[in-house]
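Reviewers asked in the last cycle whether our approach scales beyond single polypeptides. To address this, we selected a multi-component target totalling 887 residues and predicted its structure end to end. The input consisted of the following lines:
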Amino acid sequence: MSSPTFKPRVEMRTTENLRAFPSRGLLLLLLSVTAILLPGAVSADVARLGNDVVPTFQAIDLVLDADADDYRGAVRVELEVKRATDVVRFHSEGPELTRVALMQDGAEIAASHQAESDEVVRLETETPLAPGAYQLEVEFTNVYDTQAISLYRMEKDGQGYLFTQFQADDAREAFPCWDEPAFKNPFQMTLTVPEAHLAVTNTPIEESKVEDGWRTIRFRKTKPLPSYLLAIATGPLETVAMPGLGVPARVVTVRGQGHLAGLAIEMTAPLLKALEAYFGSPYPYAKLDFLAVPEFWPGGMENAGAITYADRLLLLDPEAASVSPQRSMARVIAHELAHMWFGDMVTMEWWDDLWLNESFATWMGDKVVAEVFPQFGSAVAAVQSTQGILQQDARATTGAIRKPLNSPKDLLSDVGLAYQKGRTVLGMFEQWMGPETFRRGVIDYIEANAWGNAEASDLWRALDAAAGKNVSGAMATFLDQPGFPRIDVELRDDGKVELRQTRFRNHGSESEDLTWQIPVSLKVPKVDGGSTTHTVLLDAPTTVVELGGKPAWIFPNADGDGYYRWRLPSDQLLTLADQAGDVLSARERVELIGNVSALLLAGSLHGDEYLEVLGALADDPDPLVVRSLLGALGAVKTAFVPAELEAPFAAYLRRTLGPAIERFGLERAPGEAEAVSLVRPNLYTWLGREGRDQAVLEAARTLASRYMEDASAVDPSLAGTALRLAAVGGDRELFDDYTRRLEAAATPSDRQRYLNALGAFDRVELRRAALAYALEGPLRPNEIFSPGQTMGSDAAGRDLLYRWMTESYDQIMTRVPPIFAGFMPFVASGCSAERLAHAEDFFAQPEHQAPGTARQLAKVAEQVRDCVALREREGEAVARFLKRDAE
Ligand SMILES: [Zn+2]
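The resulting structure, written as structure tokens, was:
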């Protein structure tokens, strides 16, 4: 799956635009675009089926009316009994079985069956089965799910639709099957649907006939697949062809949305071509459909040949799509397409390698987006997202990304790391090995395991063989260990540099000592101008590097590729910061901002010094660097700005950010760089909402009314921001206007803009109204947290959101996708010890616990304690700085 996502979120934020909002990424996990990537929960008791009896082919026949509440079906499974046994077990959770028959050569074998658990059916034969071929036939009835998992029903404009989301273990809720990733075999689906409905699965149609108003469609046999990659969609769907892909391809939407598919169609061919070139082989399946699903909580899901996407990510009005959603769309498409090779054609043996599946797809997807669409600034954005993940990974409660999967709870924890840390570590070692050598290893791995299953160790062997050295041993120090190194860099007078590694720790943290094997890249100036890079593998606690003369400055993470933090003596840090604009690339300047933020948390930099450094960097000419700086200000706001400092903080923002908005302008200039359009909404938000800049607020109100009159008259990159800023100080009439427009929205983006803006009103009665609407209004399961997410930008809003979550907990749980339950403690994030204490009581109650809750709560607790300690440690210095600055 994909999660375009970043902070503890695993990249689950709703839109990139929203990221601009100074919420601390509340609930990113739940909402990310980047949600592209969240794995589904594996239920609490993992009952593995074993290998005595394995399927070799599964035929699935379903009669599906999207306007009904229930359905019936039959499966026929070709089985191979490998060892004599009198037990056949298979998954089925929910379907009512009306016939279960084990057959051999057309004759039924005497057997009885019963439920072994909620999820496993156990069939016992009267006499043991000899090894050989058998068939299992099961008929059943079932009801559709309504919480956006398994085979679920939803309505749009009064019409019913059915979609699926099976990862990780929800195929078994739709039909009986062998529901583990290692059972990889061909499937064949036959769907009978009302004649007026379309039906889509993983393969092209083989045969279709109509009888009595029903259409029966037999689809072609699939290539070998695990059950979690199957997909079904049916209802009054419409399709738009995607030409130029080498296989038949379409975008499939609910009725009336096909005209929004143009941008996705335009982007897909070049992305797919770049991936085919990388893997050295053509797209592996017989057709490709992109399904735009209105009720979808991950960003995308890599079902072979039938990729599902959140509609708001895939369907962009070509006349009105700003850069930010275009970039998100490119990332999610590239991520899911990368899975067609890595994940689908070669599938992990078991869920403990899910992190690799997702790390690789995220790394690969970002790589091709940067290559195909350099104008989106993805190369810089990638470094920015790594900064967020390092912050999360610095906490003692964050585990290693690779670990034995003792319980499915572990699968859910640290899922953001799986996408982002894994991606960065792969990228760091790709650079160290050399991109071509790395690619050779990847291709060898894919070729050796094509159409089958593999484990991470198979990839490591292939990479080591390609490199002719032990790369995997060094990688393992990053993948098997939690946290990351801190490198203290000392530039000696004799021109040698001493590097000393320890574990990076936030101030006061007592995590265990560890050592890494780190490819360190040191950037230094050349005598005759320009710069050069020295790369060294730091595999001991200390090492000394010979530079041949003392350089004027040193930057210890060239190109920002490294997954580590570094510290220079303060005078050298300041020298570097002063020259950053001249000697460092944009990626490196973004890394520098992240690194000084980390030093603040580590207690190695004081709060006033920190604000001083941020102030110096705010003048950066690159909009993407300014954007990254705004992210750092979010942390300052949360930790250091109580009500009495709001005015001085607002003054600091106006002084610091004013030059940037002056340079970039309040409205889009013809032909301006796309990076400028990307950062402008963030500047609006910071200057308007936090900086109380009257000119910006006025401009936003004007844009919002213009947008409500005629959406096409407003720069789409500013529309959502303008609606949210207009809500600051807005009244009930405006609130009601927003809900009316949300419900009547013609496009998913328009709907999302109003949805997010509902949480941006600052009057407390309207904030309450937004939360009430989240549950009582006509929202979809994946939208219920959207208004609240916007509210997380200030302390009062976070309190309100938290109270709503606890008071409405039961009602929320009946509405949202079940996987959300484990992330609920996230709502207690922030800087309030009181709220945390309440949350610890609340989630101690068994009725508020779900898989993952305890782990999530521990993370939130550490984040809050770090924040409270930081405030106590540096609050005074920051307050002094802000007050002095205001004078
Ligand atoms: Zn994925």
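Residues 853-886 form the longest helix (34 residues). We regard this as preliminary and will revisit it once experimental data from Aim 1 are available.
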